[in-house]
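Q: How would the structure tokens look for this protein?
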Amino acid sequence: MSNPKNAQSKLDRLISAWETLAPEKSFGGMTLKEFKAAVKSSYDTRVELQVLENQVQSKQVERETADTESLRLVQLVVNGIIGDPTEGPDSDLYEAAGYVRTSQRHTGLTRKKKASQKNGNKQ
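A: Here is the predicted structure in token form.
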């Protein structure tokens, strides 16, 4: 399969040269008009692809906007779970929603070993 940009470039260059230098001549059993009609689908498909690419970009922006609102609502619900006296930040529901229970959190405090203890050399 050839490069689509290369194919379009070849088509454009041939049509331009044919129109400019020999518009009344036939080549390959076709007139210029017949050739343009035969390759029209190549151009039409490119136009359709551009429309679809624009639609994809538009839908991606639409999705991003919807996700922003959805995630705002997720945070609102999670805050409700945290604030609920029967659930709270240490509940099964909180954990099942993908969060770490308060009782399962680590402090993050680490104590680095001294170089002499790492190597097993006590001085």
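Residues 82 and 89 are 5 Å apart (CA to CA).

The chain is about 65% helix and 0% strand.

Upvote if useful.
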